[in-house]
Structure prediction request, 577 residues.
Amino acid sequence: MAKAFFRLQKFLRRTQFLLFFLTAAYLMAGSLLLLQRTRLVIQQGSRGTSLNQALAVPDEVAGVGIADPRALQDPRPGARLLVGMDALQEPALDQRHSPRWLVSRNSELRQLRRRWFHRFISDQEPVQTAGFKAMKHAAEHKGTYMGCFTDDSRERTLKGAVFYDLRKMTVAHCQEACAERAYTYAGLAYGAECYCGNTLPATASKPEECNSECKGEKGSVCGGVNRLSVYRVEELRAGARRRRNVVYRGCFRTPENLTDTFPASLIQPNLTVETCSEFCSKKEFPLAVIRGQECYCGYPTGRFSLRDGADGLRCSRTPNTSSAAGGKYCLVYQTPVQDTRCTDRKFLTTKSKVFVALSSFPGAGNTWARHLIEHATGYYTGSYYFDGALYNKGFKGEKDHWRSRRTICVKTHESGKTEIEMFDSAILLIRNPYKSLMAEFNRKYAGHLGYATDRNWKSKEWPDFVNSYASWWASHVLDWLKYGKRLLIVHYEDLKQSLIPKLKEMVEFLNVTVTEDRLLCVENNRDGNFKRSGAKQKDFEPFTQEMKDLINRYILTVDEALRGRNFTGLPREYVPR
Prediction:
């Protein structure tokens, strides 16, 4: 009995040692494999893509080839292969390149792109610090602290303007934003949301219920869950007034019924633009309309859409004089107040039956298109990736799982067969590749709102970038034409020039009904918060002739592919360049 027990004990000791050795070996092998893969991806990213590699055309677009740039205006059947610079001189087809176009060539690039786009940023939940004394922290800021108030999203009092910054929101930032837009009160909630208005919320709450720490300022209180920390910023408006932009919209025919068109009005001798703008801003209207000594406030509506402007000579540029043509025309100015008729957004209450993609090449205006769609439909858009910068600016669908079907459509830059066939339909947004490449290069080196430096453009990275990304622009469109089930083609340039008609097409494609006034509100807020600012280089041409030759061939290939599928070809402005 003792002998058997000794044998069992000896076996268990050996087994324990063996398990420990296998576990250690497994962990070491996994670590080495991870390091090897990481090094491989970095090496692939630095090598780029060769300009001399031939590009075969997919079966769906047979007949598409290389032609003179003038062929875009008068397309004719051409050669069946798009090749690189060196391959143009070869009469025979290189058998190494399959008719799958760029699928195999871009597989490594696609993996690298996913690493670039999956920039996960750690989520910082609001710090619940019950016991904060809001009055104590309020004394550090310029505005007058009014107290903690209940925030009802259905009947929100501070609804003049809404801002989000889930990483850098501070009390001072919210106060200045509201003051610059001529509001009296600034309210903060959830540590990251800023609301502006001219009416104080009706229901006060206990001071300790405003207990969310500001995302961008430790030790400061920015409201709470359904609670607003409200400040009066009227004393800041005098300084902010110098920075306000009152934009001249033009001369327009006066609507027939002024009282029905404009909810507020003021008659004052020696009326000035500043007086009328201040009056309409306080009333929370985005438009200030001047006819002689009369000031009217309102929104763009079907009766007054601001689409058909009149000759400026018909309007007097001096508001305190009699308007031209017996009062038939008026001057229109945009106040600093945000048009809030289309700013409310939410997730779908039930899962969408149709899975829709908003697909584009990077730099083609996908973020701008999402801004337009969200404000037109009232629903958030999702994303195949997670971009912390977009989430922090109010694109809340960024954090929602892209397959949740709680968003109206899903942003994607993917172009693989598997990724495309997951969607039931897609809006395919196409932009001039020259503009797209520059926009994406700016985003890569300066974020969504900045510009790359002169040093970036003159560095080795720029030709490598064009080398790798130009072919992706073409393959992205061709793959979606080949594998997409139901497509709506939208050209960025057409959307920019004819916003309302094109946006109507997109909304109808998404099977959403919207009012004319809501579309006019979107047009009034068309730029959103993602228009690039800063020093932009003038008369700057970053493309060499070799780059232009290569890109122009891609343009002609995509143009013929679109026409071959009975879609409108690319705008003529794309080539020649």
Observations:
- Confidence is low (pLDDT under 50) at residues 36-105, 114-139, 318-324.
- Residues 2-47 form the longest helix (46 residues).
- The two ends are 93 Å apart (CA to CA).
